[in-house]
Amino acid sequence: MWPFTRRSHESPESETAKRAAEKSLQEAQARNPESEAKLTESHRVKEQLRAHNRANAYSDLIEGIVLDRLNDGRP
Question: Composition bias, kind Basic and acidic residues: at what positions (predicted)?
């Protein structure tokens, strides 16, 4: 016969940990729409910056060509 009895209930620490995990999950789920909105805005700004940088690169290239032609290739 086994001299130790089995616990039929969970420990108070595990109950506290389970409640804390559930609360954390609920808080994270509540912030999800806000996080999604910020992520979408971040992607939009990133694409705008990329387009702006690309336009500046073309502008600099054209400006270099025009200035080179105005100077007839002289430095």
Answer: 7-25, 33-50
Average pLDDT over residues 12-18: 86
Entry pTM:
0.51
Instruction: Using DSSP, state whether 54 is helix, strand or coil.
Output: helix
Q: Taking CA 15 as the corner, what is the angle to CA 14 and CA 19, rounded to the nearest 5 degrees?
A: 115
User: Rounded to the nearest 5 degrees, what angle is found at the Cα of 21, between the Cα atoms of 16 and 39?
Assistant: 160
Can you tell me the distance from the alpha carbon of 43 to that of 60, in angstroms, rounded to the nearest whole number? Answer: 26
Contacts 24+ apart (CB under 8 A), 57-61: none
Instruction: List the chain domain ranges.
Output: 33-68
**Cα(67)–Cα(26) distance, rounded to whole angstroms?**
61
Joined together, the tokens standing for residue 65 give 């060509």
